Amino acid sequence: xxxxxAWLSVPLLFALLFQLSCRSRPRIPVVEQxxxxxxxxxxxxxxxxxxxxxxxxxxxxxxxxxxVVENHTSTNLPESDIARLNxxxxxxxxxxxxxxASMLRMATQVSRASGGxxxxxxxxETALWGFEDQPLKPPDSSAVDSCLKLVNYRxxxxxxxxxxxxxxxxxVDLGGVAKGWAVDRVFDWLxxxxxxxxxxxxGGDFHVASTALTAGQRxxxxxxxxARGQYFARFKLDNGAVATxxxxxxxxxxxxxxxxxxxxxxxxxxARRAVSVTVVGPSTALCDAWATAVxxxxxxxxxxxxxxxKGLEALVVSADSTGLWWTATDSLxxxxxxxxxxxxxxxxx
Length: 349
Ligand code: ADP
Ligand code: MG
Fold this sequence. Notes:
The protein is of the alpha+beta class.
């Protein structure tokens, strides 16, 4: 299945691309910077007639903040709060950075609201699969089963600014939410500094605010889940956040089957009901977590749960034996431009 139009073939790195089209207008002034952080590329851009030196300094400070978030949330850094929390599982409470306590609270709420499809304590299972080390084959099913016993967000005890994992071997994994949290953190801070036309992109998860200068000109491009370098759909977004989860981001093929990094906490195996989920909403952290949740839940149950969440919208792309099909919440479906002419729309109630 391929999207046909040649103009869709834009080079890309991420699940989503954010683009300002300004064909009919003079070039919009922008101060922007891209840096590697949290294992991906972050871009921070401030648009409009601003003092360039101050904007550059603000962006540099924003990158410092992203590094602070990374230092507290990365499981790879032995002294991060999360690494300590995981090391002390089944033993003691661990004191947490304020932001991290809020992040865990939010992640636990999404875990609950998604019926456990998003589970912030999936860490033992994701460590077993080891997607960061580019595995070539799936783990033994007995190992998958025994790790599953260590996954349950209800056993993450949060008390003010401290937390404890109830059972030894349990591990928190913030991979599905920390990037989005970092995006919001610096986005909110830039707005508080008085910037009004801002875009923060954390590896394809965005938060954006527009002014009259840019209104109506920003497009979110959703990457095609099966045609590399092409786009599945696009829609306009002036203000708000968006995140995507896909089975094409980190995966391997073994004996003809695709194994990817979004695991179903009910089974411990890669979730199979969707191939790509994009969530639009008021905060990137929420969109990030819900994109993972809806990916696990699949189109029917996923959209049902999204409709219960105020301000969230979702696009779900799934695959069956005849190809790709898509569904979306009503208002997103109305403004979505699907670029893959072969993909079928299905209404899901
Ligand atoms: P990416 O970070 O590649 O954009 P996602 O935002 O979809 O992808 O998050 C996927 C990451 O979330 C995985 O790499 C893993 O760390 C974590 N994860 C995987 N499955 C789940 C799940 N069911 N619930 C919560 N987190 C998950
Ligand atoms: Mg996510």
